[in-house]
Amino acid sequence: MALYQKTATELLGLLSSGQVTSEELTRAYAERIANIDKQVGAYLRVDVDGALEQARVIDARRKRGEKLGLLAGLPVAVKDLLTARGDLATCASRMLENYRATYDSTVVAKLRAADAVLLGRTNMDEFAMGGSTENSAFQKTRNPWDLERTPGGSSGGAAACVAADEACLSIGTDTGGSIRQPAALCGVTGLKPTYGSVSRYGLIAFASSLDQAGPLARTAEDAALLLEAIAGHDPQDATSINAPVPQYSQTVREPLKGLTLGLVREHFAAGLESETEAAVREAIKVYESLGARVKEVSFPHAKYGVAVYYIIAPCEASSNLARYDGIHYGRRTDEAKVAAELDAERKELLAAGKKREAETLDTSLVRLYRKSRAEGFGPEVKRRIMLGTYALSSGYYDAYYLKALKVRRLIRQDYDAAFQQGIDLIAGPCTAGPAFKLGEKVDDPLAMYLVDLYTVSANLAGVGGISIPCGFSKTGLPIGLQLQAPPLEEDKLLRAAHMFQTATDWHTRRPALA
Amino acid sequence: MSLSRAEVEKVSLLGRLQLSPAELDLMTTQLGAIVGYVEQLNELNTDGIEPMAHAVPTSNVFRDDVVRPSADRAEILSNAPHADGEFYLVPAVLGE
Amino acid sequence: MTESTPPYTIVIGLETHVQLQTETKLFCGCSTKFGAPPNTQTCPVCTGHPGTLPVMNRRAFELSLRTATALNCNIATFTKWDRKQYYYPDLPKGYQISQYDLPFSYEGWLEISDPKDRFPPKKVRIIRAHLEEDAGKSMHDEHAGKADSKIDLNRTGTPLLEIVTHPDMRSPAEAKAYLTELKLLLTHLGVSDCNMQEGSLRVDANVNLHLDTPAGKVATPIVEIKNMNSFRAVEKAVAYEAERQYAEWQETGRKLGDPGVFKRTFGWDDVKNRTHVQREKEESADYRYFPDPDLVPVTVTEERIAAVRAGLGELPAQVRTRLEGSYGLTAYDSDVIVNQGRAFIEYFTTAADTGGDGKTASNWLQQDVLRVMGEQNLTIENYPVPAAALGDLLKLVRGGEVDTSRGRQVLQRMFDTGESAEAAMRSLGIEKVDESALVALCEELVAANPKLVADVKAGKMQAAGSFVGQAKKKNPNANPGRVKDLCLEIIARLP
Fold it and tell me: Which CATH class name applies to A3-254?
């Protein structure tokens, strides 16, 4: 087995026993990426020299017998919306194509503190808006299991790089399913933590009350390791939870006794593809064989999740993205052209006798904003800015935003009720079906939004969720099982996932890449 | 309720996006479909339900009033599309 | 007063923005110190860089609570922060973090009065006070026309308290009195330095007129006046605007509530002494307020509110009452002293208590201490004569140990050398002249000046002054009052 095919936990053993150096490992990944990423397109940038330099420093420190961090010497891929000082943070957007962060996000700072090697930055849907990574302004990412299909999104690069053995650990972010859905479609393990357990400082916001960074890896053990490294209270994030970080990497191997899984009746209704349903039901049986009890529960508000999400997320996004105005950083349109364009428009209006229209024409500053933003953002980002701006505009607030916040409460209450009934974890499908073809849904935004049906509720409720491989379609595409836990019970998610992975081998399967 | 093209145009100014006539047409259709979808929430009676703006119910998070070094001006201005070493520069904004 | 009463009532509401005296900005650790080179007090947070998050300054909230409590406001037990969204180059996030529907305080009042009694004391009701962040500064060279505007973000994120009154003021003098009292309260509480030149206190005035017409009561359209950079300017701008609105009403008859009548914004031109309409905004404001998901709400318990109230100490209005009651000061004098601030009040009470008389202390403080502070640009904190030392001097003056004019010399000496009152007197060779020596001196003078004696007898009392002058020449320590009295007694006894 090649070095790059091993799990992070295995590699950590090799590194600490001196059988392999971080430099060798980093080089192995760099070569793998050089060989394979032309097909997959998972990475936007790979900093081979920088990574090797970091690796050598860690190797030297290890040699000197220094105490090293949790991830000492392990290369990690980072989604391109977490800032790292001095590095670009593009969010796969033309708007931030040349934006160089002047500070470290807390996640990146924690990775550095854990002595990880920052290998490169992964592709994503622009500003994390999308479910297929097709909204990247820069490149397509392909599903390693079928290069004609999407890896999912928005953390498509983050999932694909793990699936294609281009990284063993990868950081994604999840606002409505953006870690779990690509993890499911790429056949890897992806965890969205409880809101507030991983700092959002330096996570370039899409929807602030929903965004969470989390780990993608091959196994629950590896995900536990990475989560332990990045979780924790951060005084720079007022929404960060002030609680100690459990030692996930230590507890992950402890099986859960007397586990009760809840199956949400509404998740097994119309829309779920039969192959996926079969694989998920088979997975539940595995749990039963391991001693778990299964109870059916009802989430009466589950079906409203997507509607609530597509109000709250665009409202917050329209506000969060207002800062991209071409004034203080980011893309600015050609100012001379703006002036000329306005002059021409004014003349034209006056010639047509439209005096009033000529007088109310944009000022040059307003037009500078509008053109800079029009040029900097892609269609999906514009759509969501428009949607959010509309929903928050005068006269609509109560009907859309406030209504959505209330239904959000009802969705949370569905979870609370289930967990109060003695359910430990909610189990069900992560997506309705396996990876779809690239281009299949790009012209139908609503169809694309419905991809998030099973994942958005966890973000709305703020609870943690994990997707683990639980089978394959006849066409050889991975299928994901989603588990969701009460707030701050990531240890349960990871232990349950590990139990499953000790009993199955779906997570060990590899796509055939040339 | 569906959106009119004029409404979409107004929103595009509010959101500072310059949309072409074709984009305005497409946006009107697409936003109309999405708004139509989200209106299913009106089936639900939410009287008396407390809105949930935050995923985690916390309060009273403060920091101490202690000065931390500011950023280096050259570094922070290095990302500005147009600056003169001291200020950000923008096309003349007159009045206020 | 011969001014005829104008045929209208002016109705004024004020919105003040006060920069809070914190070390750091509202949401980041950048310094708020005024006057730094442009863009040197900024960081990724206050310049709205991608990924950054705000964390609330505890002190800013505490200062806000203290102010609102002193303004007799109700304190909300639950408050939250909202985003007010608009695009402007000095607002790097594209929104201002402010408070919309649940401000931390509401429904208070501030009592105003006029030491000159132009209006009776009244309570100006406060609608709300809320905490928000300041924007940066845009500098435009109006003459350069098309040149670029320059943006400085040093001020961006400075904590601001916005205090909004009901339209309760009825004259420019009342508006000025409100602002004076507010400034006094804020500086007294140590909440803000209220320096208008540095923008620490900014005022917008909403003004219109109520008229009695044959057709009933009508109101003119409301105008918001901005850009007033002194209380005097507020007074002048409001007065100007009242006349302008009256003239406009006479000409157009346009009333509040007429179709097509909206609130307009006027700027005050301090050079031309007039208001002028400001350029209308591109679109009608639609701020799309919504709760900031990056900040969490703040809850305040009743116990906390009670503790803040208990910790306020004596407020300016209470100090004035005390000075008038316990020290016998006039309303005018107590106003002057209280307006000088907390340290000056303390200085006064110490000097008065040591010296044994409030009125004497008040006179000396106003005539001597304040004058020198003004001339030499001193504050009471660095005025070199301690309050107790001044009190000692006042005691000596009151006891006749030294007369008032020589007392001034003593104070000057104390100021220059740091000596105590008695030491300064000794240094200046001042000592009380024995009564018998003084009698002898006066008898000698009376005997030597028959002409003056005749004048005095003829009722020319200024002649008595000449005895004083001569006595001082012979003995500079001779108490002028006593010399005059003695001379008059001796002359009266003459046949």
Answer: alpha beta
**C460 in B contact zone (CB under 8 Å):** no
pTM here? Answer: 0.92
For residue C186 the two structure tokens come to 């804020």
Burial of C272 (0-12, 13-18, 19+ CB in 10 A): exposed
Check if A209 contacts B (Cβ < 8 Å). Answer: yes
Confidence bin at C1 (pLDDT 50/70/90) = very low
For chain A, give every domain's residue range. 3-254, 327-376
Q: Closest Cα to residue C38, out of A320, A333, B80, A201?
A: B80
Chain A partners of C281 at a C-beta cutoff of 8 Å?
none
**The pLDDT of residue C232:** 94
Q: What is the pLDDT of residue C262?
A: 83
Query: Of the candidates A195, A364, A373, which has its C-beta nearest B91's C-beta?
Result: A364
- Pairing, β B88-90 against β C149-152: antiparallel
Are A408 and B52 contacting, i.e. CB atoms less than 8 angstroms apart? Answer: yes
Q: Do B51 and A364 touch (CB under 8 A)?
A: no
| Contact flag C42-B89 (C-beta cutoff 8 Å) | no
What per-residue confidence (pLDDT) applies to A11? 98
Task: Count how many Cα atoms sit within 13 Å of the Cα of residue A204 in the half-sphere of its side chain.
Answer: 31
> Could you tell me if the ipTM is greater than 0.95?
yes
Question: What mean pLDDT is predicted for residues C322-348?
Answer: 93
Q: In this predicted structure, what is the pLDDT of residue A398?
A: 95
Considering the segment(s) C435-493 as one domain, its CATH architecture is Orthogonal Bundle (1.10)
Which residue of B13, B35, B51 is in closest CB contact with A405?
B51
- With beta carbons less than 8 A apart as the criterion, state whether A497 and A464 touch: no
- Bridge pairing between strands A260-264 and A425-429: parallel
User: Which of A89, A235, A360 has the CB atom closest to C55's CB atom?
Assistant: A235
CB A8 within 8 A of CB A169: yes
Q: Which of C317, C397, C326 lies closest to C364, judged by CA? A: C397
Rounded to a whole number of angstroms, the distance from the CA of C102 to the nearest CA of chain A is: 15
CATH superfamily membership of B5-43: Glu-tRNAGln amidotransferase C subunit, N-terminal domain (1.10.20.60)
Contact B65 C23 (CB under 8 A): yes
Question: In this model, does residue C425 exceed pLDDT 50?
Answer: yes
Every domain of chain C with CATH number 1.10.10 lies at: 435-493
Residue-level pLDDT at C480: 83
Residue A58 CA to residue A50 CA, distance in Å, equals: 13
Q: Check pLDDT > 60 for residue B94.
A: no
Contact yes or no for A453/A271 (Cβ under 8 A): yes
Q: Which residues of A are the active-site residues? A: 79, 154, 178
Mean per-residue pLDDT for C122-138?
A: 97
Task: Give me the numbers of helices (H) and strands (E) for chain A, helices first please.
Answer: 18, 11
Q: How far apart are the first and last CA of chain A?
A: 16
Nearest-by-CA chain C residue for A394: C286
